[in-house]
Fold each of these.
Amino acid sequence: MNTRTSSLSSLSDLFRPNNPRRLRSRDLSSTRLNILKKEIQTDTHLITLKELYSMLGTDPINGLTSDKAKELLEYYGPNTLTPSAHLKWPLLLFKSLCTGFSILIWLGAVLCLGAYVIEISAKPEPSHDNLYLGCVLIGVDVICGLFSFFQNYKSSKIIKTFNSLIPMYANCVRDGVLTRNVLVRDLVKGDIVEVEIGDVLPADIRIIDSKGFKVDNSSLTGESVALPRSNTEGTENILESPNIAFFSALCVEGWARGVVVCCGDLTALGRVAGLAARLQPAPSPLSREIRRFMRCMSVWALSLGVIVAAASLSLGYPFIQTTIFVIGIIVANIPEGLQPTVTASLTLTAKRMVSKKCLVKNLETIEALGACTIICSDKTGTLTENKMCVRNIWVWNKKYSVLEKDFKSTTQNDAAFIGFKICASVCSNAVISTNSDVRGDASEKAILSFLNEYDDPMSIRKRFPKVAEIPFNSINKYQMSIHFDTQSSKYYLAMKGAPERILSRCDTVIFHNQDIKMTNDMKDVANKAIENLANTGQRVLAFADLILDAKEYPKNYKFDTEDINFPQTNLRFLGLIGLIDPPRKEVLFAIRRVRAAGVRVLMITGDHPATARAVAAEVGIATTSACRVVTGDDLRNMTHDLLSLTLEKHYEIVFARTSPTQKLQIVEACQEKGNVVAVTGDGVNDAPALRRADIGISMGITGSQVSKQTADIILMDDNFATIVTGIEEGRKIFDNLKKSVCYILISNVPEILPVFMFILFSIPLPLGVMTILCIDLGTDMWPAVSLSHELAEQDVMARPPRTSDPLVSTCMLNLVYGHLGLIEFAAGIFAYFIVMAEHGFYPKELFGIREAWDNAAVSDVTDSLGQEWTYNERKELERICQAAYFVAVVITQVTNCIICKTRYNSFFQVGMKNGVLNMGLIFELVLAAVVCYVPGVNTFFRTYPLRLRWWFLALPFSAFMFAFDEFRKYCIRKHMFNGWFNKLTYY
């Protein structure tokens, strides 16, 4: 290159391997992302080929010179997709371990270890409880963090799935020589390449020459229709321009020669890949809720810490002892069991959803699906069967629906239909394989499959062997073939294609089983039929034939398809065929359920607007004539504000002929309004929108590897109706998570208040650190997780999507800290005082005794009966009392779990049908017994074997708790006391 510029105005320069201005990695990635979000702006498909050769410095015959190609390669880099700057796995692991609620648990672990260090320095024989607790908290954080790490690490591999679409070698002309095995990564702009059937396009190319060239462009458009490409005039939209073939497209017919106009990251595929790799998914509603809860708990814990510090210092406690108290109160406020409970509940729900044909990759998206307010649905393969089929046949002024039961009998003796069967059988390149599979173009496969039901198209082809053919191209818009009729020894011309092209060539028509002259009025009738079929979303093809005169075209006549020497007009019009990708039968009911749940459904497709509108009407997305159809061209002319206004003004919208960047724009515009957006897609083109959405949903059967890698959820049956199941599960899991969180938080109160009494009233510690740990990560875990198995409430799909209903609300905190938690504390402290009293320490003697109680040098502490207690005897009694307190909390937590089964209904309406929860309650009691009675275990947890009667001390409190909560829910249902309980405690 003679001149080089480092200007960032040049897109090619901006995507060079070497950063021209040495921008920071984050700034460079952000700049590239903003560029990729814009539509492709280029005129390489509009200017003449001569101008294009001059601009690229190439020659259409000789291509580039090897030296120039090498120089361009060194400057612009290889023709590959460059991954965005991702964190290396150690940093990614660190980030995964230190996000969300885990930060609070890490804080608790550090404080525990800090308290242990302080005790070591201040006491000759320190307790190891804080050390154990700190280590367990670290273990909890590491295990939960690994789940997040593996999910994030997988998403960093997105670009690799795009690279799997790229071929290894290409046919390239350099120095006037065609080389067959040039590495695709070595191609540069200006290279001349050749593509044959079965080849994958090695770059974006402008067609120079071609013959019967068709490409499958589904990787960019999502529509798997073979598109003709040739050296013709381009259109304004490059993605629809017939003279451009794109990187990764598959050549399904013919061959072509073209000039490379774009490589690597700036190809249409590269832009999609760049967006998918660089876009950051929106944080899930659940993660936002947990962050909010974490902030509230942090403020609450620190506030209590300040209060305890002030009280301790004012009561004369030493600074080091005060620091240990503060650490203890902060740790006691951290619900250590919440993080593993949420993770376990979501994991179990994900496993349950697999049985319902829904594979969940990102656990938090289960709950997000329940909060979904908008679904942006793809059409092909999601709402429809992704299988073209014949819906209607129109022969002279008669329309037959193939779905009618009498279709076969009414068409059996129709000469037009018989002629149509012959024409459609021979004028086709689709074939039936030995295992009865039909292969070929989607439309031709549908027609051949249809014909196979009413005749034997292969027998017809044997009778009419093909002798010449003009393949379909975008200019002619028809396909013509000539066959030799072995029965009549005459040549037979068959033609199919765009109705307007076929109709203009016809002179006669079959009418009442006779060939008659076609009048202008008859053509008007046919045009009206074409319009009616097209308006219902059907792809319309017309068929015509002509029997050639045997004298003029004798046997062995040489037909020339280049310099045509046979008639192309005065044909006989046979009729029309309407093809459609039929909607799935269950989708209509599914969309009705979704809309009844308050979820809005938008269709976004690359298909024709009329087809999109018709399918939308059939599946229930477009229910009125007010449904707005917005095309890709409309979107290009819309400002961001106008798009937002359109989404706000029109409830029912169908987006047609959209590009990948436009689909992304629609998703982001919906999110800006505060919506939780789910996006469905199956193609490579859907990857950016899937990545950016709150919930990305890919198809498991027809979905590309790229879409599956990018998505959060994979529908293994490709069925929209499965999304309804996901929404119901999402709403159910959120309801059940609220119950689990309430259950976990209630035990926080009897864990916190003993510490306050220990500090403020100077009594022996009622509940130790190790028993707190046993409650949070032991006895509470199974019941908390088992609440996720509770059945959904009856109105779960009749409610609007939650927009302001938090996971932890003020009402829940009122119920936890102001009602049920206090009852649990009362049960625990009652058991504590009873056990103490039975051993001689009446409550009034306990207040102010802590200093002497904990002093190992004091061996004569006197109880209420005048008995003296040594230090070891006192500590053994302390273990008994802590065990009694622990058992009281466990007993009341059993009742609490039963209470938390419902938030509104009475317990007697739901009963004990949740087998997992029933087992969890038994496990909770058994574990409590193990902790108390098994030698070694009770030593580790500082507990002691209890007398049987002490297990029943908490039962009156449990009964009161149950009765109180039933009364509270009754008041909520009846809206009693002016809705006092509704406002205060209905979470």
Note: The first helix runs from residue 11 to 14.
Amino acid sequence: MSIALRMRNAKPLLHALRGHLSFHRTISSATKFLETFTEEFEIGNRLVTLETGKIARFANGAVVLSMEDTKVLSTVTSSKADTARADFLPLTVDYQEKQFAQGVIPTTYMRREGAPKERELLCARIIDRPIRPLFPHGFYHEVQVMASVLSSDGKQDPDVLAANATSAALMLSDIPWGGPIGMIRIGRICGQFVVNPTMDELSLSDLNLIYACTKDKTLMIDVQAREISEKDLQAGLRLAHPEAVKYIEPQIRFAAKAGKSKKEYKLSMLSDKTLEKVSNLAEAPIIDVFTDPSYGKFERGEALENITQDVKKVLEEEDDEESLKALSKTVDTVRKKVVRKRIISEGSRVDGRQLDEVRPLYCEAGYVPMLHGSALFSRGETQVLCTVTLGAPTDAQRLDSLVGPPLKRFMLHYSFPPFCINEVGKRGGLNRREVGHGTLAEKALLAVLPPEDVFPYTVRVNSEVMASDGSTSMATVCGGSMALMDAGIPVREHVAGVSVGLVSELDPCTGEIVDYRILTDILGLEDHLGDIDFKIAGTRNGVTAIQLDMKPAGIPLDIICECLEPAHKARLQIIDHMEQEIKAPRTKDGISSPRLVTLKYNNDALRRLIGPMGSLKRKIELETGARMSVGDGTLTIVAKNQSVMDKILDKIDFIVGREIEVGGVYKGVVTTIKEYGAFVEFNGGQQGLLHISELSHEPVSRISDVVSIGQQITLMCIGQDVHGNIKLSLKATLRGRGGSDNNGIAVGSAASAKETANIWAPVSNASNTTQEQNSASELCIEKNEVAETKPSASQTPVILIRSAEECDEEEKSLSSNHNQTSNGPLIDDGVQLDHKSKSLSKSKPRKSQDTIDSPSHSGPLPYKSAKKPKLSTQKESKSDTQREERNEKEGKDNSTTKDLILGKEVTAKVYQIRAHGLVLDLGGGVRGMYRFEENSKKNFNIGEEMQVVCSSFSSKGIPVMSAVDDN
């Protein structure tokens, strides 16, 4: 079939398809898919927008809340089953901050977000705590809230926005809920309260108050402050309530426009018949248990469990299945009724205390002496062990949050192991309760920590709950405060915390509170059976942290404010007891005390210390156990004790070195010994000459009697010659003949890096210590500064040596004078060193002594010296360069002599003694090398003869000799 015929036959089909497509196009243009609803209002001079219907339309309730360029989406869903599967409210709140919200790709290996971070768990708790009490009693259907940040401009913290968006989403859904709620953040800058402060304003604020409420009752309070007084805190709370209420009316209007009708759910309520039957059986024995104050936590729990089992047996005999299903909850209800009635009517508590009485206290600082800091705190049967660990600035935690600081240098980690309540459990990952309790204690202690410029350490406090019977987070505050002082951290004063409870009686008709009692330092049982858990921490001067959780659907603000006064009295009582154990930061000078030092180096020196890709830095940290933090021209070192600090400073001095100065004291290693002195490597690979006259105050006939190859010695730089060659002295660091101390450092000279390592000081002299730590560079002479060095009367005239090669030539020319004593003056070309010598930071190092290269550098010879950093831009004289080239040429020509072949035995003389072998004179101007072998003789004298055999030649033709076996 032709192509034209095919096209003609296909035309009817194309026409029909066109008509079909145009029909659907008409239908789709007439259908409206999206119907959005919005509500706008103003909070704290900022416009807030609620929107629904555009995204997440399948969710039971979905709201996007916007404030400027920050948008948060909150969705709510519930299970579709008619009956509940649990006897509690299975409410799950998830909050997530994905990096796309700020235009960033995650830095993780998979380039995607992982497990929830601590901040996300904390924000989820901020949402959960105010909405949970408003679900109807007996509503046990599964509910899930998911809040996600869509965009963040970094100005507003999205946590408060997410809570208000969640309230609006619950109002739109068909889930029964007693909202709406309003949540607001209040700050205080220069004594003035600020509504909805930005992140920049919060950094200047001494108050970070999050307040949630219904129209007339408080639901949740979360506070971080810098010792704000109770009076000022009450003023902030009374300002926050009307501001938070401004969120409520817009949500009601929004739900009227776009909300669903509430669904009828079957509530799991206890029947009056079951409650009455169990009460008749269990109330009397429960009263007997609670009126006996001799019961402890577990004894009381065991007695109550026995009562439950007795009631169960009676119900089983009566075959009452309905009562058996709800037995546990019914007994708990009876127990709650008994305890609350005794507190309201008699003012009598479970353990026999008065309403405002604090349990017996026990404090012990330094419980684990080997740690940086530790403390054991007990209040009643609650016991917490807190420890402090200090680290380098680089140990700070990196935070990938949308808002807030990128680093956290103070961390408090709270652990609640199963054994603390005598249970069997499994340790998992991050626990929301543990994260919340630890963060509360962290905020409480953060207010008294010294600023970073005064105390640059990274601090980790670890709290292990040893026994729990209520308020372990407040016990963590007390134990953590003592542990910080035990570690010597200059905190201003102690911080203590206490938990306050409330038991109220309601009017059965109106539901309003008609009577109530405030309980100080509540037990775990009183927390469970009471209305609120009001945790308040602070110093003598004011409050530093607050967390309020409650079980009923709100408490009047007046009652909440009334709880502050008994908490203040209890806090002062606890601080008095803590100060009896430890009152001020201790001066840590033991072997386990951590050390910190800050040194100044140029960036080239720091690059040498770090190594390629940080390999050398990691190697040093692994070998020593210390931590190094490198900044721009600054090196901060943190070691767990002084021995570790000494070890790492020795390594750093050897690799990087310091500014060489006249009068400076250095550690070095003897590398070569000659008749006139020893060459020493020091200060990061520098070479210096220790002349025989500078070995001791007494005459020295042989250098090997005082020093040996490979020996580490402490020396003083006494000057340099016109060529920049460094002269060292051992006797300047030793005591003189008359017992006087001659090792004093010249004025303005550089102290060793190790000498700048200072532990932190107590509060009285913390500023002086900080100045010493942060100004190590001041210990060095500036480049243009002149240091005066006056020779001692006991010192011999200065000895000036240009280089090792010149020393060899002088030896040849003065071979008749080899037995000259150390006091004989040798003046190099008559040049004298000026007593007023400049700092050697710009001088040029002496060339290292000649070396012999071995094939592939695999053996102990030659001595390999590191590349020396230049001390001066002064060029070498032409004669020096020509002399070196001539010596090198002569050595190469002599090493290729044809008279010496493999296996030839010769009698050689020891020409030089090196660290790993000898340089031998084979006769006729030929030099050879001899490596020290394991278990072989290593004590030789210059000029000593030995029988050797030629075993090989190096890559440069230098003969490699071996000792002749006598056998």
Note: The first strand starts at residue 37 and ends at 43.
Amino acid sequence: MATFAKPENALKRAEELITVGQKQEALQALHDLITSRRYRAWQKTLERIMFKYVELCVDMRRGRFAKDGLIQYRIVCQQVNINSLEEVIKYFMQLATERAELARNQAQALEEALDVEDLEADKRPEDLMLSYVSGEKGKDRSDRELVTPWFKFLWETYRTVLEILRNNSRLEALYAMTAHRAFQFCKQYKRTTEFRRLCEIIRNHLANLNKYRDQRDRPDLSAPESLQLYLDTRFEQLKVATELGLWQEAFRSIEDIYGLMCMVKKTPKASLMVVYYGKLTEIFWMSSNHLYHAYAWLKLFSLQKGFNKHLSQKDLQLIASSVVLAALSVPPYDQSYGASHLELENEKERSLRVANLIGFEVEPKAENRLALSRSSLLSELVSKGVMSCVTQEVKDLYHLLENEFLPLDLALKVQPVLTKISKLGGKLSSVSSVPEVQLSQYVPALEKLATLRLLQQVSQVYQTIQIDNISKMIPFFDFTVIEKISVDAVRRNFLAIKVDHMKGAVFFGKQSIEAEGLRDHLSLFAESLSKARTMIYPPAKKAAKLGDALSNLAEIVEKEHKRLLARKSIIEKRKEEQERLLLEMERVEESKRRELQKMTEDAEQKRIAVEYEQRRNQRILKEIEDRELEEAQAMLQEAEKRSKRKKKPVLEGEKMTKQVIMELALNEQLRERQEREKKLQKFAKTMDHLERAIREEAAPLIEAAYKHRFAEEAALHEREQQQEIELSRQRHAGDLEEKKRLGRMLENKRILEERVVSSREAEFNRLKRERQERISQIIQARKQEREARRKMIFFLRSEEERQKRLQEEEEARKREEAEIRKKEEAKRQAKLDEIAEKQRKRMLELEEKERREKEEILRRPTAVLPKPTAEPPTLGGRPTELGGTAPVPAAAATAPAAGKYVPRPMRAKVDAAAPVAPPPETDRWGGSGSKADDRPSWRDERKPTSFGSGSRTSWSGSRR
């Protein structure tokens, strides 16, 4: 570590090292001087040293050296000249910014060069491997090496400056300026990761400011200037967060602003609050939280109407319309329906938290689920007169959706109103926080609300409706979207709908038969039915006799017995159901008790953890205080050792507080500093007298030396002037001789010039002619090529048209042949049908003829049987019971009676049992005369059997 008697020597040494290219040694020399304890008194030389020091740090990108030097310089000039520290820091940031901009301008591809997720992260392993294996570096890698390090250094510069300036009341303006420049850096280069880190740094600085309230030079937030600076910083943070699209960080910025307002118990100016609520509307809209978005719009409307004197009527109308449409966009059902107890408590806390952020003071009740609701918002809009400021289209839409009952054409009436509303909006000239309002953003939510209202009204009128009818009534969405909306509404207990896609219908119902919408209708309907039944079926008169009254007594007793048995079974089932419900309730109560016990245990664990954290923080604070007390005592003792006074301050040990010891140490330091300053002033006065005496003695000697030097320089000037005149004359004479010598060659030079020009002109004309000929040949060749291509295209098109015409003719021919074949097939089919019809009629005639012949045969009398012989045959070969024989016809033993049907098996048995001579030759029906072959037998029945479509007929005979 080098030591210097004066700071000027260190600065001179550093400049010499920089001149020979040893910047690292120069930086180290200045760093040793700045961190040395010998130079604790501020002087102007230290400021120049700091300027040179920060130049070297920026040139070599040494952020750690810059931070250490600035911290030491802050200690030096904290109490003496704080403006010097401010100038050094501004110069430091200016240099870092200029170097970063210079590197950015030198790079050709900024987007690729800044493609880094985290500026504080080291190089990745793959980047190191690529740098080792690849010999030549590409342009992207060179850009990365050129631009990214400087932006890393600039980001580190902002962090260093913020860390040095934090919690210092004298540097609040510089702290705010640095934060704003850091925000602009993140915004300009889209550094989202660094922006989050920057917000966290500023948030921690404010937390430490509230935590350590006994610090010296601590900013006072109750002062208007300090509060305004802190609020401006947070509002700038909020704006940059919304422009970068970091909505979560924007919401945290909103919480920071609200916490700052609660800390100082003071509301900012209306212009800042307008920005506050304007950004809240954007944040809640991006998070799809329409209820809080509408409340933020209402607060923004109240502020603009109450404080903005330049607000035009058109802008006020647009803002009021946005408020009403935002309120209507809120879903009409309870979002927390069906949630658990813990979720409801969390939702209540979140609602209270957002209500505080928006600025609505609410009194949460135990029976209320939410502090903010859609119904209270709409009533507040009416009470505050917002509806009187909106456009006529918005009024009509509000009346249709909230007051009208149009179950069939609600959506059809809402659609043109929404079309008009979507065209409204534009830029606001008198509202700076909300530059533009577009009402079209609320159209999807309003279409969903109109769909819900229509389904709600239809469910009160219809029990079943076709899906096609619903799709026609709701022109906004397809039925798939309507089904999704209905499912969400059913889940929130807003509607009771069942969709049956197989039947293509929608069924509406209620959650219970005791629902409010059905209770009166069912009672009135029951009374009307009872009256109608009485009118149609009047009550019967009283029976006159007891027998008539008790005629159905057994039946009545049986019915009553069955009813009692059914009632008994119902009672048993109800008892079982009640027992099951009791068991279920006990199970639910047990689960609730366990959940409550678990919540109590979690709360106890949290309380123990909080107490442990508090004790740890208190212990850390006590250790810090003890360490500071020891340092103060050591400082005081060191000051006493350095002091030349014999009187020693009395240390009372534990009775003396930290503040007293710090004051004693500071007083001692101030006294020593004052003594040093007095010595320096006395020494400076002595040096002034000495310098004055030296200059008085040296003045005559300097005057004599000046006169002697003047005479010598005058003689020297005269001599040099004469020499210059003589040299000028000689040069002029030589130039004249050269001109005369070169003048003889002028004619030859002209002749040569004409010869060269003429030859070059001839060459140019030749080349020009050749070029024109070549161009004409190229033009002719291209014309021929175009002509050939045109002919080829014409030939191809003609061939395509011919092929197409032939194809069309072939298709027409095929169609004609198909039509001809179809006509011939139809004619042939007609002929076959006609032949089949003739055959069917002939068969009917034959069947009718056979039926008449059969009837005629049946009507004939039975044939006369022959007389019996001397020995009549017995029936079956056995005598009768009367002692004689029964006369049996001869034909009866061999064949059944005429006209009686005998099955085939029985017929075979009869033939086997009676092998007698055949009967006389008669027909099968017992008639005589003609043979069986002379008439057709009715047993051969011919039936037509159809194949296919009846075009062909085959005949098959079947014998019965």
Note: The CA atoms of residues 59 and 581 lie 82 Å apart.
